[in-house]
C-alpha cells in the first residue's frame, strides 16, 4: 500500500512495480486505486475482481485489517455483535475483542474500555471458561452493542489537504495522559501551507491498561510520556520534521518537572524513564496542556462510538493547533521556574551562598 502525489505518479508507480516483479517471474493482481485514471491504465484482468470503473462505485476492501472505501478515500470499521446465546467468559470475551483489529489506534478510546474489562476479569480471578458476574456481563453487553455503530466512523486516509496546496512545514504534536485505569498517547500531524491555511489530523494512538501493582498517578503519567515518545519516534521516520521538531504535551506538572531535572537524582523507575526522554528529546519540546484541552484524556477514560464520531478534538486535536505558537496554552512549567529562580535570588541576597551555589540550586 502506498500513496503518491497525483495520477501520473500513480501510473508510473504501477508500471515500475509491474516491470520489477515481472523480472522476478511474479505477476501482481488485484490492483485497486482511489483514482479511476490510474485504474484505466491497469488491465482489467489485473484489477481487483469487483472493480468496474464504468458502472459501479469502487469496492470496499480490507487493508492492514482496516476497511478502506476507495471511492471516498476513507478508512472505516465493521464488526458484528455476538449472537444472542453468547456466554460471557474470559475466553469468549478475548476472542471477540481480538476480531476488532485497529493497528493505528483510531478506535483507541473505544477499545480501551474492553481492555479495562479484560483486566477486571483477571482481577476477579475468573477461570478461562467461568461465567462472568452480572456487572461485567452488563458492561460487556453495552460495549458489544456499540459495534454496529462502527461503520459511522470514517477517517480520511490523507493527512493533508489536496495536492494544489503547497506545504511549508510539518510538525508532529503528541499528547499524553494517564488515569488509575489506563494511560495513553495520541499523535497529530500539523501541516502549514503556503496559502496560510493549517490542517491537523490524527496519525496514531496507543493505550495501555494501568499495571495491577499500586502505582501513583504521576508515575503513570510518566509511563504515558514514554509511550508517547516511542510512538512519536516511530511515526517521525516518515515525516520531514523528524523527532527533533516534534512537540509533546502533558497535563502533569510532575512529569514536566522530572523531564527538566537531573535524571540521576531520581529513584531508578523515574531515573530510567526520564533518562530515555532526555536522550531523545530536548526538555523544551515538552509543554503543559490543560486537561480539558488534552485529547489523550479520551484514551484513559474511554468513549462511546456515537461520541467519537462527532468529537472533533479526537480526530483533529485541540483548536489551538490551528493557531500560531503565541496563541498556544501558557507553558506553566516555564512560568514556575522563573518564579522559583526569583525567590531563590531574593533568599540568597542575605545568605552566605555564593552566586555559583545559587545557580546550582536554581538548576
Question: Which keywords apply here?
Answer:
about 15% strand; four-stranded antiparallel sheet; globular; about 40% helix; five-stranded mixed sheet; disordered C terminus
Tally of alpha and pi helices: 13
How would you sum up the global shape? globular
Mean of all residue-level pLDDT scores: 87
- The oligomerization state is single chain
Order of helices and strands: HHEEEHHHEEEEHEHHEHHHHH
Strand content: 15-25%
Classify the helix fraction into a percent range.
25-40%
Major β-sheet, in short? 5 strands, mixed
Stretches where pLDDT falls below 50 for ≥5 residues?
Answer: 341-363
**C-alpha Rg (nearest Å):** 25 Å
The total strand number stands at 9
Distance between the termini: 49 Å
Q: Please identify the structural class as seen in this structure.
A: alpha+beta
In the sheet with the most strands, the strands line up as 7-6-5-8-9
